[in-house]
C-alpha cells in the first residue's frame, strides 16, 4: 500500500478520539465509544509498520533512531500532562492519592502503567473514576508492543513477504486466543495487558502488507470504506461496558477500520469525509486531546460538577487544551533540530530522573504533607493512623494462637475482673474505646481479635469471596484456640464479642440463596452464634455483644479531610443519614435480635447508633475524623478514642448497666 502521508488516516484518528472523549463524558448513546482506542491501535500498527518496512528495505533501520523518534513524538506532551495533574493532586487530592499518583507516574515512565492498573481496578469499575491517569494504560500497551515489533520485523527481513505475513498472522491468532481466554477466566488483566491487545496492532501490521485491489470499481471501494466506518460507529453505539471485551468482540471494529484504511485511497466518498481539512486538523491533535480529556473530566468529577453543561464544557476544554498541547509541545519538540544523544537525554533520561526524584520526595515527606495546610496535616495524621499500625498491633493482631495477656491487655491491668475482647477487625478498631471502658469500669481486658473472622466456633467450610478463602482455615484454628482458652480460664468472667455483623449475616430469603462473601448461607451465623454463646454461658461467662458502627456511604469517605484542603471549593456536609449507611444492616440486626431473644442473659452495647442523632450520623467528632483514611468501615486510632466520648454522650448509662458502677479514675493510654 502507499507509504506516504495519508490525510484520511488522521481523519480516522479524529473519529477515534471523539468516540473516546464522548464515551468518557458519559454520552448515553455512545457507551461503546471506548472502541476508539482499538481504532488507534490498528492505525498505529499500520503506520508504524509501513515506516519500519521502508527503513528495512532501504537499509536505514536503526533501533536507537526508532525509539528516540517515538520518545520525541510521545513523551513531551505526556510529561507535561502528568506534571499538570500532579500539581492538581497536591492542591485538591489527599496525600495518599498524591503518593499513589507519583508511583503511577513512575510506572508509566517504566512503560508498565497498564500492569499497575490491572492490579488496581477494572476499566469499567466505579473505582476507575478515581484514577487520574487511567487512560494512560493504552500508551503503555503501545510502547510494550513496539519494544518487540521492530525486532520481529528485523528478524524476518530476509524471509519472503508471504512468510512474514504467516508469522505475523500466527502471532495475531495467539494473541486473540489469549485475550478470549483471559475474558473467559475473568482475569483483571484481560482489558489492560499488552499480550491481550497485540492482535489489534497486528491487524494494522498485516494491513501494511496488503496489496491494493486491482480492477475494482470506485463504487466498490466506497462501499468497503463506508461500510467499515459504519461498523465502527455501530460498535461504539451498541457495545456496553459489561461486554466481554476485547477478545472476539474487538474483531468487528478492528477489521472494519482496517478495511476503511485499505479502501479509502480509492474511495472518493470516504476521502471526502475523512480527508476534510477540519477533520484532519482534529486528527493531528488527537494524541494531545486523548492525553488531556480524562484529567479534565476527572477534575470536574472531583468537584462534583456533573451537570450536562459542565460535561460539555469539559469536552470543549479537552479539545482546546489538546490543540494547545499539539501546537506548542508536540510540534515544538518533535521537529526541533536536536542531535540523537541530546534528544535521548532530554526526552528519556532527564524526565525519568525527575520522576524518580518526585517519588523519593513523596516517600520521605509522608505524601508531600509539607505542601498542605497545618489544619489538614493535623487531621490527616489522626485519620492515617489505625490501631493496627503500631508495635502493639504487630504483637497482638492477626495471631492464630491466643495472645499474651501480659502484652495484649487493655483497661486496668491490676483489675480483679478479667474480660476478653474477641472478634474481627471491628473488634480491634475499638481497641482504645475498650481501653477507656476498662479504665472507667475497672476491668482488665485481653484482646484476641483476628482479621475477617467472626467470633464463632463454627466457621463455614465453603468458600465465599476468593479474598477470604485463604484466611478461612486460620480463622477456624484461631477461634478453636480462643474457645479452649476461655473455657479453661475461670478467672475470665466476661467475653466481649464484636464484629462487622453486616458482612456475616445473609438476609437472602430464597431457599436456594448463594453464600455471601464470607461463605455464610442464611441461618449460618444464627446457628454459629447460638452455639458459641451457649458454650460461653455454660462455662460461666458473661457475654456482651457490641453491635458495630455504621459503615460510611461512599460519598462520606474522607469527607472531613477534603473540607480541610486549602483550595476546597465549598465545605461539604460530612454527616450522613443512618439509612444510607452501607452494608446489610437489617439482616445483621435481625441476627442480633434473635440471639438476644434466645439468650436473654446476653448484654448488648449499642455502639452502632452512638454517632447518630435524629437519624443522621457524624463522620468526625470534636475535630477528629472518626474513620480511617480511605476506609468506610474502620475507626482510626484517635477516632476509636473519641468514639468513646461520643458514645457516652449519647448512651450515658448503658455501660454502667452492663459493666457496673463507673470508677472516677484518671484515663491511661493503651499499655
TrEMBL record:
<feature type="transmembrane region" description="Helical">
    <location>
        <begin position="221"/>
        <end position="239"/>
    </location>
</feature>
<dbReference type="GO" id="GO:0009103">
    <property type="term" value="P:lipopolysaccharide biosynthetic process"/>
</dbReference>
<feature type="domain" description="SGNH">
    <location>
        <begin position="404"/>
        <end position="643"/>
    </location>
</feature>
<dbReference type="Pfam" id="PF19040">
    <property type="entry name" value="SGNH"/>
</dbReference>
<feature type="transmembrane region" description="Helical">
    <location>
        <begin position="189"/>
        <end position="209"/>
    </location>
</feature>
<feature type="domain" description="Acyltransferase 3">
    <location>
        <begin position="7"/>
        <end position="325"/>
    </location>
</feature>
<keyword id="KW-0812">Transmembrane</keyword>
<dbReference type="InterPro" id="IPR050879">
    <property type="entry name" value="Acyltransferase_3"/>
</dbReference>
<dbReference type="InterPro" id="IPR043968">
    <property type="entry name" value="SGNH"/>
</dbReference>
<dbReference type="InterPro" id="IPR002656">
    <property type="entry name" value="Acyl_transf_3_dom"/>
</dbReference>
<keyword id="KW-0472">Membrane</keyword>
<feature type="transmembrane region" description="Helical">
    <location>
        <begin position="349"/>
        <end position="372"/>
    </location>
</feature>
<feature type="transmembrane region" description="Helical">
    <location>
        <begin position="165"/>
        <end position="183"/>
    </location>
</feature>
<feature type="transmembrane region" description="Helical">
    <location>
        <begin position="270"/>
        <end position="290"/>
    </location>
</feature>
<feature type="transmembrane region" description="Helical">
    <location>
        <begin position="310"/>
        <end position="329"/>
    </location>
</feature>
<dbReference type="Pfam" id="PF01757">
    <property type="entry name" value="Acyl_transf_3"/>
</dbReference>
<keyword id="KW-1133">Transmembrane helix</keyword>
<dbReference type="GO" id="GO:0016747">
    <property type="term" value="F:acyltransferase activity, transferring groups other than amino-acyl groups"/>
</dbReference>
<feature type="transmembrane region" description="Helical">
    <location>
        <begin position="74"/>
        <end position="94"/>
    </location>
</feature>
<feature type="transmembrane region" description="Helical">
    <location>
        <begin position="245"/>
        <end position="263"/>
    </location>
</feature>
<feature type="transmembrane region" description="Helical">
    <location>
        <begin position="35"/>
        <end position="53"/>
    </location>
</feature>
<protein>
    <recommendedName>
        <fullName>Acyltransferase</fullName>
    </recommendedName>
</protein>
<dbReference type="GO" id="GO:0016020">
    <property type="term" value="C:membrane"/>
</dbReference>
<feature type="transmembrane region" description="Helical">
    <location>
        <begin position="100"/>
        <end position="118"/>
    </location>
</feature>
